[in-house]
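Reviewer 2 asked us to include a model.

Predict the structure of this chain.
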Amino acid sequence: MSTSWHDKLLGGFRRTSDRLVGNLAGLGGARLEEHTLDEVEEALIGSDLGPETAGRVRARLAEGTFERNMEELGIRLVVAEEVEKVLAQVAKPLGIDAFPRPQVVLVIGVNGSGKTTTIAKLAHLFLEQDYQVMLAAGDTFRAAAIGQLRTWAERIGVPIVTGPEGGDAAGIVWDAVKKATEIGTDVLIVDTAGRLQNKRELMDELAKIRRVLGRLNPAAPHDVLLVLDATTGQNALNQIEVFKEVAGVTGLVMTKLDGTARGGVLVAAAERYGLPIHAIGVGEQMDDLRPFDAREVSRIIAGVDTGPRK
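Predicted model (structure tokens):
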């Protein structure tokens, strides 16, 4: 029996939810006085939800509506409501609507973020929606990246354009766009180098790719997706800051939420940057990367939704 997406979310966010519930433990049942509100706010910041969301929850609890003694579950319900408001603004599936085709999606992210695997999972998601997909191995800096992406392309049954290690990434993208256009591919997903040690070098390479794309299709790239590893916690926010400057990020994909208690960073990223979060990853399987429902995820993070759906 296959596991439902809801159950995968429950499992994926369990450590995050347990951490938040643990941080709030003992704060219910007392009058919400100033020092209690301070403790709630600190507990939420300690759960990686970010100071903005923590402050909004505190303000809600301080409004006076909750002057009666409030149980811990009541506090978590308020957390769920405020988190939902934040996530609802950014939970947006990636639409394939470019014309002429293909829609060119540049995927960026630091090495180790799960970028290559995420590209394969995105391709799988688009194939499920009956789109034709092609991959381009634009991370020529690492031979392993080219080989890994080729293996994934063969496994999911999509064409791939590659070149030699150390080759010209922009030239590979040029070839891929021409080929995708000729055969009527809907989506071209382009892997890119993930080295941030030399921001200038990475910026120059991405700028060159953009110039090449512009000659073939002035609207391309249509999307620049940043893959974030949730296990890095607050460092993921620093990566958004850098890549926004370097690459003009248009949307986010957050992976490895199942491997961390720091999944609250999803909320912090949404609140601080407001970039669309197109999908989240909660496992290793091909269908463990999906768009998400803001209410569902908010209630799971807050420890309000803890069981399978009936």
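The CA atoms of residues 105 and 189 lie 5 Å apart. DSSP finds twelve helices and eight strands in the chain. We have added this to the supplementary material.
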